[in-house]
Write a structure and sequence with these properties.
mainly alpha
């Protein structure tokens, strides 16, 4: 019971941090009315530290809320699903690497790349089909790739530091 309550409250905090990190720095993308941000750093941390379903829910809810609060209402459904999928699949990949007896940093890097690839592909599909931008959505791919790489570079050292904190180690998904 205590572990579930801890996970739930930590997930709520991570959702809030995801929202804040997403809204803190917003660089508009060309062609699609989207924006590049550093919120994926917390999306990745949520996956790695909380696991499923808590990390995925924190990522999806926090990111969707950021779009809603920032006036990007058309993106809310897509963002919520894409960020949920990033964290959910990212955690599964990370967990799989943990069984291979490789250093955890390898699992963080590979799972982060997979998660960010889901983001890039997810937004391309959402913007090109649901939002109706068609091939113009290709113009957002470079910005989304820069966002993914940046957040991976920020997220891996952060998780390595945070995993050393005893109170957070109990949340460890390894």
């Amino acid at each position: 019971m205590k572990k579930n309550l801890t996970l739930l409250t930590t997930a709520a905090m991570m959702a809030a941090l995801t929202c804040i990190a997403t809204m803190m720095i917003r660089v508009p993308t060309v062609g699609t009315n989207g924006y590049v941000n550093i919120g994926d750093t917390i999306v990745l941390l949520s996956a790695w530290m909380l696991g499923n379903p808590y990390g995925a829910l924190a990522a999806g809810i926090g990111s969707g809320l950021a779009d809603l609060l920032a006036g990007y209402g058309a993106y809310v459904p897509g963002t919520t699903v894409i960020k949920f999928a990033m964290a959910f699949v990212g955690f599964l990949v990370f967990k799989g690497f943990g069984k291979m007896k490789l250093p955890s940093v390898v699992g963080y890097c590979v799972s982060g790349v997979v998660a960010e690839a889901i983001m890039v592909l997810g937004y391309f599909l959402y913007e090109s089909t649901i939002l109706g931008y068609g091939l113009v959505a290709l113009s957002a791919i470079p910005g989304n790739m820069i966002q993914g790489i940046t957040c991976l570079v920020l997220g891996v050292p952060l998780v390595l530091i945070l995993k050393k904190v005893p109170q957070l180690r109990m949340l460890a998904t390894e």
